[in-house]
Here is the input.
Amino acid sequence: FLFQLTSNSRKMTSLSLTIQADYGYVILTAVSTWILLNWMGMQVMKGRKKYEVQYPNLYSTNHNFNCIQRAHQNTIENVPMFLVFLLIGGLHLPRLSAVFGITYLVSRVVYAFGYY
Here is the structure.
């Protein structure tokens, strides 16, 4: 993929962006983020049933449910920044970005189990 910007003014400006073939690993990592968020959302739904927390309440008086909800919510709060760094960093070092991305996702699973 090649992106090129040119200008017809006196001073010609050119910008090109080449995406490496290994960028697919970065995309796969980004898709894995979606899988993680869905898994965590299902944990919240199970917690709602188990601890009888009705919608639209985000939190309850039950500490265990609040931990499940907070782990999911905290992950959602951090995902936009993670994805920006993953996708931009992957333009230069796709394999390394994917490895660090998968490491981050695994650490979020460990974090969630520790929080529960």
Remarks:
- The chain has a mean pLDDT of 90.
- Residues 36 and 81 are 16 Å apart (CA to CA).
- Helices lie at 23-51, 63-92, 94-115.
- The chain has three helices and two strands.
